[in-house]
Amino acid sequence: MKIVRWIICAVTVSFLTCYGCSAAQKKEIRASEIIKLMKKGEPVQIVNKIILDDLDFTAVTEPFILNANMLRSDIQSNIFFDGCVFMGKVTSNGKRGKTSVQTCFRNNITFMGCDFRGEVDFDGAVVFGMVHFGRSIFRENAKFNNMAVWAKDSYFTEMKAEKNFQMIYASFSGNLSFLNAVFDGNATFQETSVKGKLVFNNAAFAGRAGFDLIDVWGSAFFNYAKFEKIADFSNARFMHTADFVNTSFAKQANFEKVTFMNTVNFEGVDRTNLIMNNITE
User: Fold this and answer.
1) By Cβ atoms counted within 10 A, which residue in 8, 50, 168, 176 is the most buried?
2) Is it the case that residue 14 has pLDDT exceeding 50?
3) pLDDT band for position 65 (cuts 50, 70, 90)
4) Rg, the chain, Cα only
C-alpha cells in the first residue's frame, strides 16, 4: 500500500512539475521584433509567446497616399499567432500628423487561441486573406469597424469578449462565423454586410446586441443563441434563409421593418418579447 501511495504521489508531483515548466517556457518577445520580420517581408509564425508592448501594424511599411484624408500601409507577410498573449494594444490604424493611416493585409491574419490583454483595434483594415480569431479572448474593447475582408471564410468561433465588441459597417465577401462566441459586454454589428453565410449558433450575449441594418446574402443562423439584454434586428435584410431555432430572447427583441427574402424559422422561440412590425416577407 505504501508503494502504491508513493507511486501516485510521484506521478502527481511529476505532472505538476511538467505543467509548471510548460507555463514557464512561454517566452517573451518584443513587438518591435515582429515588426522587423514583417519589414523584411518574411512570414510571421509565432506560437505560445508573450508579446510585450503595443503591436502597431502601421509601422511595418511606409504608408502611401490613398486619398486626401487617408494613408495606407501594405503588409505582404502571412501572419500567424497561436496561443500567444498580447500585453499591449494591437492596432492596424493610427495617425501621421493629422492624416489617418489604415492597413491593408495582403495575406492571412490568424490569431488563434490568443489572449489580448489590451485593446484590439482593426478599424478600417482591408484583408485579402483569411481572418481567424477563433478561441481568442478579448479582455478590453475590440473594434473591427469598417473592416473589409475579401476571403472565403472568416472565423471568430468560440471567441470571448469580456468588454464591448464592435463590428459596425464591416464588409465580408465570404462566410462569417461566430459559432459558440461569448459576449460579456455590448456587441454591435450595425450595418455590417455578409455576402456568404452568417453563423451565430450557440452564441451568448450578456449585454445589448445590435444587428440593426445588417445585410446577409447567404443563410443566417442564430440557432440556440441566448440574448440576455435587448436585441435589435430592426431594418435588417436577410436575402436567404434565416434560422432562429430555439433562440432565447430574455428581453425585447426588435425585428421591426426586417426584410426576409426567403424562409424564416422561429421554431421553439418564445415570441413574448418579439417586436415584429412592418416585416417584409
Assistant:
1) 176
2) no
3) confident
4) 22
Looking only at the bridges linking them, the beta strands covering 237-238 and 259-260 are: parallel
Between 93-102, 214-223, 250-259, the lowest mean confidence (pLDDT) is in: 93-102
Residues contacting 198, CB < 8 A, separation 6+: 175, 176, 177, 214, 216, 218, 219, 220, 221
Average pLDDT, the chain: 91
Taking the C-alpha atoms of residue 236 and residue 234, their distance in angstroms, rounded to an integer, is 5
State how far the alpha carbon of 257 is from the alpha carbons of 98, 223, 231, 280, in Å.
40, 21, 14, 7
What CA–CA distance (Å, rounded) separates 120 from 274? Answer: 33
SS3 58: helix
Distance of CA 94 to the CA centre of its chain: 20
pLDDT in tens, 156-184: 999 999 999 999 999 999 999 999 999 99
Q: Cell 502571412 sits at which residue?
A: 78
pLDDT band at residue 281 using 50, 70 and 90 as cut-offs:
confident
pLDDT, residue 69, reads 84
**Is residue 235 classed as helix, strand or coil in its secondary structure?**
coil
Q: What is the DSSP string of 171-191?
A: EESSEEE-TT-EESS-EE-TT
Q: How confident is the model at residue 273 (pLDDT cuts 50, 70, 90)?
A: very high
- Residue 72's DSSP bridge partners are 64, 102
What nine digits make up the cell of 254? 426588435
How many other C-beta atoms can be found within 10 angstroms of the C-beta atom of residue 8? 10
Burial class (CB in 10 A: 0-12, 13-18, 19+), 2: exposed
Q: Which three cell numbers stand for residue 61?
A: 511599411
